[in-house]
């Protein structure tokens, strides 16, 4: 990215002053290297977001920001309920894609001793890949119950335990979801996809806690150096994609009549208070419940596999949080508490300690934040910062791509990546070697640089660092 015209706010923050169509400034959180390596489209897209009606305070880009559909991935923007808009592109196609992490308490050697067999068993049990279907098929009534009930529905059907629910964002069920706002085609696409991992950057990983950065927070999260955790990264599958596609088209057509000039059709949006805006929000909330239920079923399947190798292993849930949503939240802006609709696309909510929306278990610590890395470089667990939330209490969600999937395919072959990772002690199982090549570790930004920038900017605090042992991909 060309940094000319960017005002430096600190070592890890930059501002693009409001000009032209911009209603507010744009802020990019990144160090010198990260900001210069960002695609120029990040700057273009975050500037476009800053020009949307009713936007409040600023448009934000996280340190892992890269080009996306309309909004940059790693983008955050909040809108006034009466004057603002909701954008399907600002949520993304994989609605409520997110990460949940399970604590095993197992030391790495215990998992390494059965790593090959465990990886094979997980691969055989967890349906993964484009269009993958699982052992759960929903009729019309169960589909609507799932879309209204989320992870709570899954627990009621025997997938997991009630103790999981307080450790899931929104208590495992997003309120005000409306299954009737979801099209029959979206429901049909999801009918046999519950309990499936999907493709692309989605994964299930067993990871070693290789370093503790904050001992008290790590202890509160149940994390110890050398122990193994399991992280599941996936979303709302075909249903979420269909909802995003349908509403983007409808919003683009309706925008002129609503008096909305779109600098980019991919930024299609609708007034929050309009019939279209309200209908999208109800459908999006149903897709959030779909993603929460999906990760809950995957959790149950994962526990079952681990139980074959380690009987009576409890594997409690640490937390589950989404990073593609629009949520109605209260924030302080210019000294005044305001109700806002906060879009986070490839960005994670990072609530500070004592926030009223936190589960009791995290009132003193702040919310766990999961930053997914690549198959070879590891991931990180952070916690919400204790001071006044920055960027509407948001943080990064991953390492962030440094090159496109097309570029990655020119440089790597899937089998080479799998073999290279095996030599480093990472066991990869995937339905698609092409997908592995697209997700090659070097296609992503350095995870430590991204996390360091987020921490330095006050978005979150470091808690622990993770390194993969085995990875299941689509």
Estimated helix fraction: 25-40%
Largest sheet properties: 8 strands, mixed
How much β-strand is present in the residues? 25-35%
Structural class: alpha+beta
Q: Please give the oligomerization state of what you see.
A: single chain
Rounded to the nearest angstrom, the distance between the terminal CA atoms is 32 Å
**Shape category:** globular
Indicate the mean pLDDT: 95
Radius of gyration: 21 Å
Uncertain regions: pLDDT < 50 for 5+ in a row?
A: none
CATH superfamily: tRNA-splicing ligase RtcB
How many separate domains make up the residues? Answer: 1
Class, according to the CATH hierarchy? Answer: Alpha Beta
What is CATH's topology name? tRNA-splicing ligase RtcB
What does this entry look like structurally?
With 474 residues, this protein is an alpha+beta fold. The protein has one domain: Alpha-Beta Complex (tRNA-splicing ligase RtcB). The chain has 13 helices and 19 strands. Strands 7, 8, 9, 11, 15, 16, 18 and 19 form an eight-stranded mixed β-sheet that branches. The longest helix is centred in the middle third of the chain and has 35 residues, at 275-309.
Task: Provide the fold topology.
Elements: E1 7-10, E2 13-16, E3 26-28, H1 32-37, H2 40-49, E4 55-66, E5 73-79, E6 85-87, E7 98-107, H3 108-112, H4 115-125, H5 140-156, H6 184-190, E8 203-212, H7 215-221, E9 227-234, H8 237-254, E10 269-271, H9 275-309, E11 317-322, E12 324-333, E13 336-345, E14 347-349, E15 368-371, E16 379-384, E17 394-396, H10 405-411, H11 414-423, E18 427-430, H12 433-438, H13 447-456, E19 460-473
